[in-house]
Amino acid sequence: MDANVVQPEFDALDAVASNILVLDRLGRIIYATKKLTPLAPANNKYTNIFEVLEDMRLKDGLREHIRMSGDKAYFFTAIMQGSPFHFQVTRWRSYYVCTGQSEPEIEQLYHQQIDSRRRMLEIKEKLLWLSMMDREHFEGALVRILQTACSVLGCERVSYWLVDEDKQRITCAKLYLASMQGIDESNTLREITKEQVPQYFSYIENEHAFILADDIEAHPATAEFTMPYSRLLNIKSLLDVPVWHNGILHGIVCCEQVGQYKKWSLDDVRFALAIADNVSLCLQTRDRIEAERKLKETNHKLFRSNTDLEHFASVAAHDMKSPLRSIVGNLQLLKRQHAEALSEDAHSFIDYSVKNATHLTQLINDLLSYSKLDQQIGFAQPVNIQEVLDNICADQREYVKQRRGTIRVGEGMPTLSLNYNMIYRLFANIMHNAIKYSSDGLDPVLEVSYKYDDNFHYFEFADNGIGVDDEYAEKIFSLFGRLHGLEKFDGTGIGLATCKKIAELFDGKIIYKRRQNPIGSVFTVVLPLQHSYAEVSA
Fold first, then answer.
1. Domain 373-537 has CATH 3.10.129.10
2. Rounded Cα–Cα distance for residues 280 and 251 (Å)
3. Full-model pTM
4. In b/e form, how buried is each residue of 464-501, taking b as 16+ CB within 10 angstroms?
5. What is the pLDDT of residues 123-174, one digit of tens each?
6. Could you state, in order of their start, the residue ranges of all structural domains in the chain?
């Protein structure tokens, strides 16, 4: 067999390990990597492995393993080139590959593994410390992050660069120097534009990108920094990772070695990416604190505004009702004392004016009550909904009888933990409207039913009244959302707006749907299951 023919097949092994021998079935060494080259074939003559081995037991064991063509690995130790090598023999095609390491190499590898583990522990310890640090003060947190990165990565400079909105310029916001053991305040205004380093910007704009440059002048993304940045500052190596915040490139963490080249490891890259994540978390905390501050200010302003509005409503209601009472009293007195002198039209005008003044008084009362609903929510207590509905039916019995109506309440109503007066008012308004807004020629009928699922309670009020077209469904829940004139149906137009607000105060909602067969309306009050009394008491 010609060694020159065989060798190219194994040239790639030099990149895998430094100590490899390839044997044929006769035990001849047909290929050896660099360190064992003296054992390789030369001038078409082969060195047999058994000529190298001195121990007969090793020769016999290896010869038997080759003869048996076993697939299992075979291990042996031999002195080669004056050093003990530990070999592992595995079969590959028709060859036997001996991978070996000398004892000094094994010892060196062992120490490298220990150093690697020690470094990983250090990295984990630092990341754990960063995860527990106070992020509420962004500037201070950023300094600690840069300081930690400088210490772990063993480089001279770690800085944070801000990217402008158009991604046309980066500005150094903070620069930590290992030699100073602190922030270099004199360097915070340094800027670099995309026009100066277009390749760098194209690299860093990817969300998952990082730039690893052992030699800053050799990497295509950083070669543009040669003048005046890198040579002026004597920067040799660079590791940059982007910081993304809310889907936007916010900044760049830049780690630089000065005066000498640095071989960045995979652990360095992972740590730098973790540093970028920590900066992003600090930005999120800063945004949250700012949002909470603004929300607190808004709530304070809203509270003051609501307080002022409630005071205004109370004063306005009192000041408006007083002259209304006077107007009604004077009109009634005029009608009583001058009844014979007034014409029939005059009596009608007086009656109409009294009716409207009375309606306005009721409107003021309802509006004032609506404005104070938030104050009336009160404390939650166990409320048996069946009892609430029975009480409403009893209280409205005369009105329902007068309208020749019928109310049917289903079974299985729950007990909820909420305010009795508010839920009474919510249901009473809906039930009163169902009887009031009846169709001509039909006796009003209201059916009340209940069901629930994993998240909500559903109270359904279905009537056979006049109904409302779906296009007006939202309007009926607005203040003064009347669809009919006072001459046909009395009321202030605040009832359903009150129902909607009460439902929302209970974290629920009210839904309207037009009924087709029979024609009518279906109002569904939806309340969260969390109001269940059994859940709350548990």
1. no
2. 9
3. 0.46
4. bbbbbeeeeeeebbeeebeeeeeeeeebbbbbbbbbbb
5. 666 666 666 666 677 888 888 888 888 888 889 999 999 999 888 999 999 9
6. 3-106, 119-289, 299-371, 373-537
